[in-house]
Amino acid sequence: MKGSLDVDLKNKIKTLIVENCDLDIEIADIDDEAPLFQRNSPLELDSIDALQISIAIQNTFGIAIRDSKEMRRVMTSINSFADHIQPE
Amino acid sequence: MYIHNHGTFVGRPVADMKYYKEDVSRYTRLHFRRANRFVLLSLAGACRCAHEQSIKKNTGVYLTTENGNLGDTETVLHQIFQMRQFPMPYNFINTMSNTASFYVAQSLELLGRNMTFSSKLLSFERGLELLHCDMVAGSVNEALIGGVDEASFSKTQFEAKFDRRYEDYNMVEGSCWLLMKKEAERAMGEISVVAAFADLGRLLGWIERQAFERPVFVAHGILVAPEDKKAIGRALPDATLFDPIGDIGYFDSAAASAVTHFLQRDGGACLIHVNKDTRGQFMAMRVEKY
Q1: pTM of the complete model
Q2: How high is the ipTM of this complex?
Q3: Record: fold of B2-181
Q4: Residue B179's beta-bridge partner residues?
Q5: B16 touching A (Cβ < 8 Å)
Q6: What are the residue boundaries of the structural domains of chain B, listed by start?
Q7: What residues contact B242, with CB distance under 8 A and at least 6 apart?
């Protein structure tokens, strides 16, 4: 199953982001398609958060994001994140 | 150097970070999402000291500490050497020595000289010496100076470092700050002397030359030995013992704690604080409370 269709995986990613970035938000309030890093993003994450999340992803799922372009593509939204971790 | 305000925060070492965040949020609207325990501890004391004070933008920040970001440094070393991982960025950033003083300056919107330093159990005294030099040189006219340290949890390290029984002390963590200005007007007190002495004899010679107009109190650092205390007591026969380490608890910035707790006393008085480092060098501070 593609990651973007796996609710459990997406909740796990949301929890990982909230815990690692010390966000004051319920995971139920994070939209699967909402941008994570743009200026109008509800989470207001920035480049240091991206680094924090990428290392947390590596430690939790064993998946390294080594390229900045790839990081930008993968971290577009919760759905893109989930598809990268679980392509099918 | 004149004391215009003081701020003290002493926390229990097991206190939850949420408690510290809530405490700091009472003084500033900034949300310190990435701040760690040491940063929050620094802010808790500095914000109390600056609260409802008229502070100029060019006020300096001098953060003195024995151990710095102890918790995060340990975490980062564990991540690198034990877990064989990259350190988590938040942890890594917070190990930078001036992160906490940066947060203090940011929260109080200060643009003046900003530094963090440590000097082997005499950090607060050395910080005051440096501030005094900067004031005399004219590069700083106002500054917040604080002593900040997390609690020591390691019985082994504590006993090896101090040759004291860990169980004899109530371990706390703290952040104790002074707002210092060059100008005397409206000051609540003064630090009139900060001096170093190579040995006990020279310290006693200095003490015997002091004249006092106010009731005198004497406080000691953790390494001042019982026989040193007796000799100091003989040189200051009318002084009353002031013991914040016994009354409040110990952390490695206890000298700063002694000064700010002394300033909380009612009435005018003078404090002679004697501290000692592991090499046997003494430092004394003379604090006047008007």
Answers
A1: 0.90
A2: 0.81
A3: Peroxisomal Thiolase; Chain A, domain 1 (3.40.47)
A4: B5, B144
A5: no
A6: 2-181, 189-289
A7: B217, B218, B219, B258, B262, B271
Sequence-distant contacts of B233-236: CB under 8 A, at least 24 apart? B235/B204, B235/B207, B235/B208, B236/B207, B236/B272
> Which pLDDT tens digit goes with each residue over A2-44?
888 999 999 999 999 999 998 989 999 999 998 888 777 888 8
**DSSP designation for B252:** T
Task: Give the A:B interface size as CB pairs under 8 Å.
Answer: 24
What is the per-residue DSSP string for B66-96?
Answer: SSSSHHHHHHHHIIIIIS-SPPPHHHHHHTS
Q: Which CATH class is domain A3-85?
A: mainly alpha
Cβ–Cβ contact B96 with A under 8 A: no
Locus of tokens 């000051």:
B187
Q: Which amino acid is at B17?
A: M
Of A23, A24, A52, the CB nearest to B88: A52
Judged on CB neighbours under 10 Å (0-12, 13-18, 19+), B212 is middle
Neighbours of A85 (CB within 10 A): 19
Q: Collect all residues of chain A within an 8 Å Cβ-Cβ radius of residue B34.
A: 22, 48
Q: What is the mean pLDDT of chain B?
A: 94
Measured in angstroms, the CA of B104 and the nearest CA of chain A are apart by 20
Fold of B189-289: Peroxisomal Thiolase; Chain A, domain 1 (3.40.47)
Kindly report, residue by residue over B162-212, the tens digit of the pLDDT. Answer: 989 999 999 999 999 999 999 999 999 999 999 999 999 999 999 999 999
Q: Do B85 and A21 touch (CB under 8 A)?
A: no
Contact A23, B55 (CB under 8 A): no
Do A48 and B86 count as a contact with CB atoms less than 8 A apart?
Answer: no
